[in-house]
Amino acid sequence: ANTLFNIWIKYKPRLPEWYYNEKLLKVGDSLTQIKEYKLALLQCYGRYLQQFVSVNLDDIIDDVHQFKSTFFPNGFRDKNAALTFHALQERNVCIYQMVCSGDRNLQNQESLQTCFSVLSSLRLTMQVALPQENLCWLIYNGTIHIYTICRHLMMRSQSAKVLEYLLWASICMESSIPLLSVHYLTWRATLYTAVSQCYFDCQAGIHGEIFARRGLIKIDELKQLENISSSLENSETKKIFKEATLKMSVMIFKRAVYESRRKPKSYFRPKLRVSLKEAQNLPWPRTTTERLLTEMFDGAAAQFLAILEALSDSSRHVLCPAPPVPDEIEIRDVVSELFFAGLEILSGNSIKKQKQLNIFVITTGEKGVSGDAAVKFVKLAFSYEEWDVFDSAIEFVVNFLQAQDDPTWKKAEVELKLLTLMQPLLFPRKFKHSFSINENNTKEARMPHGSEKKQTFRKGSLKHREPSHDLMILATTVFSCVSTSKQNIQPDKEILVDVIMFLWQKCKTGLQRIQMSGSDYLKYIHKYKAYQWVHVLWIINEVIQKSSIADTNVVMLAEITLHLTAILENIADS
């Protein structure tokens, strides 16, 4: 930093101002590419902006007139205006990245506030630049930055607050004439989808559907203009329109599939429910949900995507399974039918019934149901307590995962293994089957409802006997998962945190018995085999230390460390 600072001081008087400023910002861009955000902010973008104002820049982002007079005293036609816009935008990007480097999960209130300040600053910069058609590149880049930050904040349950910024980004894309072309339609549809998702996260599904329908109208308007201006429609253009239309249709289906089945409370509902088991051998479409899927989407891949989106709920945790909300008969029916249809697609049967040319099940390429989508489907089945679907789907998905040579698929395999281990622990009365998972062997498992299933896992072994033994197997498995040196195959952070929280809650009971035994720690531990609880506690502590979840719950980490320290000290004194 000092070397760079000295270079700027030494050469600034010797170079033309325009040349110096241009190179200054280019160096900043190079520094951001290698993730040296602080250096780029202080020595490049910040240094450039110091010529306009000596006070804190954040103090003037609320007043558009002051903003214009401060940074653009000579108007927007000035040759340095584009550089100034670029410096302002990149400064915000650097601030956001610096916040992420110190608080990746945005857990501190100060981090959240800084992110919203950055969003406001980006919006103000775009507001000033929007009338200038030659600055459309700045508008486009601004929408990307806003989308990136907003998606991060949506993961922190901040959808209600980021909605206005995503709406602004969408309107900006519509207000800039160069950005209305087909070339930018895919990105515009992505922004529309994010806005709709925000509405759904805020439990305002009707507004999410309305906005998606609005997006569909905008796409159709552009398609009509494209047909008028060009008599020939190439394959790439068709693909862009098809993809954009699909995104909007999926968001419309997300609400329509449920609302079309809701009945007034006073409405008498006759018991004419179609048994899904009876409908299993019927030709596709077999249910009301499948008929709606067929009407709205062409192809199994698009239908499967719509099913995933309709079942997705940002408030759900995979390892906190629960029935659908709200708990209405019609909603439960739709959820069951969605899983029923998804399993049929995953098995490949729906494709055969629809007589499609390309027969596929799960693939890693563009065609077919992607491996990631299939894994998500299994997780959703677990989350909704759809155990028949979970038991059947996991067989297809695990077989696919084990056939892949790419090590990145190991992460998904590990996550599904943890779900399988958690299943009998969360519902001990429902799942009393015994099964084993052996290396390079197939496990024979007695699944619920008396059905026989086969599943394959490559590593580990387990036999379900008593709860403490189940906990030991789960604990040792999650420990082996995080002990690997490859970060990209560690389980998803949400799943890892939920597993640790579950182990810790179960472990507390055993630890209390040890502590109540008084000073005779060793005798109690050996007599009742309580050392297993100490082992689980040690594993929990090691998993937290080895993974990146230590900052998720600092209080829990401190409590675990204190418990482990107290037990070890008492054992040493015994």
TrEMBL record:
<dbReference type="Pfam" id="PF14858">
    <property type="entry name" value="CFAP54_N"/>
</dbReference>
<protein>
    <submittedName>
        <fullName>CFA54 protein</fullName>
    </submittedName>
</protein>
<dbReference type="GO" id="GO:0060271">
    <property type="term" value="P:cilium assembly"/>
</dbReference>
<dbReference type="InterPro" id="IPR027912">
    <property type="entry name" value="CFAP54"/>
</dbReference>
